[in-house]
Amino acid sequence: MTEREIIDTDVVIVGAGPAGLAAAIRLKQKSPGTSVTIVEKAAEIGGHILSGAVMDPSGLTELFPDWRERGAPVGPAVSKDTFHVLTRRHDFSLPNFILPPLMKTHDGVITSLGDLVRWLGDEAQALGIDIFPMTAAVDVLVNADGAVEGIVTGDLGLDHAGNPKPGHAAGIGLRAKYTLIGEGARGSLAKQIMQRFNLGATASPQKFGLGIKEIWEVPESLHEPGRVDHYLGFPLDDATQGGGFLYHANDRRIYLGLVVHLDYRNPTLSPFDEFQRFKQHPSIAKLLEGSTRLSYGARSLTSGGWQSIPDLVFPGGALIGCAAGFMNAPRLKAIHSAIRSGIAAADSIADALANGRANDRLDSYSPAIRDGAIGRELRRVRNVKPLWSRFGTILGVLLGGIDMWANSLFHFSPFGTLRHRKADADALWPTSATGALSYPRPDGKTTFDRASSVFLANIAHDEDQPVHLKLADPAVPVRETLPAYGAEPAPLYCPAGVYEIAEEGGAPVFRVHPANCVHCKTCDIKDPARNITWVPPEGGSGPNYVGM
Ligand SMILES: Cc1cc2nc3c(=O)[nH]c(=O)nc-3n(C[C@H](O)[C@H](O)[C@H](O)COP(=O)(O)OP(=O)(O)OC[C@H]3O[C@@H](n4cnc5c(N)ncnc54)[C@H](O)[C@@H]3O)c2cc1C
Ligand code: SF4
């Protein structure tokens, strides 16, 4: 067995997202003597963060009531919020009064989450929190009682075959009294821990969406800072869930994106190309002509909500933020809940440490989430996603709206609690049943290919390192998935062109180009054979998003 250097700390946190940073800051606010260490796989804090975002500031206010005076970098307050239903050519704005109050956000601010976490990182460091960027957590340390007692960081400087290169540094162990997992949606350690402690046993399968986002600079005349638009319908068909967003931030920037839920059926559907189609709708295209695309990125999000929340604690730690899945899918909001969950976990740890405890179950954390603000918010919208999945967009969203109104007015849901029936990996049908989709070539002005898009994600990835997309059996895509579905979906669902079906000697071969990966985790979620496992590459690899 490898002898690792072990460093002791009181609390180790995986991920410098809003959940992890909030947990660290709260711990230091409550008990300044506690040593707190955060590891972050991106080269810089915020480099792997991608969000919409319209933020409900309630979570941030709980952490720093004076965040405005402290200079938190948030954009304009929401001044106009419109919900649209798109057909191929038309755009119908829904009157605001028919939208259930549960979909509205009071005091919403348009925010670059990347900028916000950079600022939170500065605040954390000022409080004495150690943050290690370029450091991926790849495993957990487990004590003799089977409790988690920290994490193992990834090796640096291994070649493609796993042999040490010059400058090699073995990963270290960070041993802690409590470990918090704040990796965001589909965390790789969270997945391991959930399996090890069977945390999902009584929950519905988690559901996911893939969000693709671009930042554009638009002419002054078309820019309306504070304007927020959400879209349903085109380009997605009735059986495919998701929707578009368009937020006008400061400095002539717009944040434009499409979320496609990953329980879509058609193996030839390409979320990336659906996003290109979305940009061609007249309502969107008129903004983009004469504008400049600045950045591109993609990230999965959770959409299972209340029914999919797993057991949140395990011996020695807890899941926080979107690693646990606190997204309110109808509102497309979770930053505030990520922050709140970090605060709740920190409160639980501070009490435990004050009582001399270590490496046990943080039993007060789960009730704080389930019976607190996060649980109250998610419970009331719990049937929207299952109704949408069962009945499609037109009927499902209508029924979901009725359910939300009933919850708002009478605190009652006519549908009880509907479960999510299957994992997204099990949702595909063969192309013989769905038909095959084809997409037009990009025009290079408002629509683009994957290669030129990924270029704008500023990826850094040393190619001579072990492949971080682990295929359990490299033959499965061609031998099984291709014949079973009539298409191999990976090249289509991957928004970064990592997977390819090429031809060699007249036969199809499955190729992987890991250096393009933007860490969205879709392949780990959607592969119908569950043959692909995403593990963190060498710390610092991946996108370097600015202002996402
Ligand atoms: C397209 C899209 C639009 C969204 N729009 C909105 C919106 O408008 N409003 C809203 O409130 N919410 C929105 N969300 C949701 C919001 O972004 C998330 O709820 C929030 O980012 C979750 O915070 P987190 O801290 O749990 O995880 P993340 O923000 O994902 O942060 C996790 C961090 O952990 C790091 N990490 C992961 N694994 C490891 C590892 N093994 N080792 C080291 N580091 C690791 C990552 O690099 C990352 O920095 C949106 C999400 C998406 C994808
Ligand atoms: S390889 Fe997987 S995680 Fe990476 S960009 Fe493609 S789908 Fe996302």
Largest sheet geometry: 8 strands, mixed
Q: Total number of helical segments?
A: 16
* Helix percentage: 25-40%
Average pLDDT confidence is 97
Strand content: 15-25%
- Cα-based radius of gyration, to the nearest Å: 22 Å
Number of DSSP E strands: 23
N-to-C span: 41 Å
Description:
This protein has 16 helices and 23 strands. By secondary structure, it is of the alpha+beta class. It has helices at 18-30, 58-63, 67-70, 113-126, 188-196, 271-280, 282-288, 335-354, 365-370, 373-379, 384-410, 431-434, 450-455, 476-485, 490-493, 522-526, and strands at residues 6-14, 36-39, 54-55, 80-86, 91-94, 109-110, 130-132, 137-142, 148-153, 156-158, 164-169, 173-181, 208-217, 227-233, 242-248, 253-261, 292-302, 313-314, 317-319, 469-471, 499-504, 507-512, 532-534. α1 runs parallel beside α4 (113-126) and α1 packs parallel to α8. Strands 1, 2, 7, 8, 9, 12, 18 and 19 form an eight-stranded mixed β-sheet that branches. It has a seven-stranded mixed β-sheet with strand order 5-4-14-15-16-13-17. The longest helix is centred in the last third of the chain and has 27 residues, at 384-410. It binds flavin-adenine dinucleotide and iron/sulfur cluster (SF4). Iron/sulfur cluster is lined by residues 469, 494-496, 498, 517-523, 534.
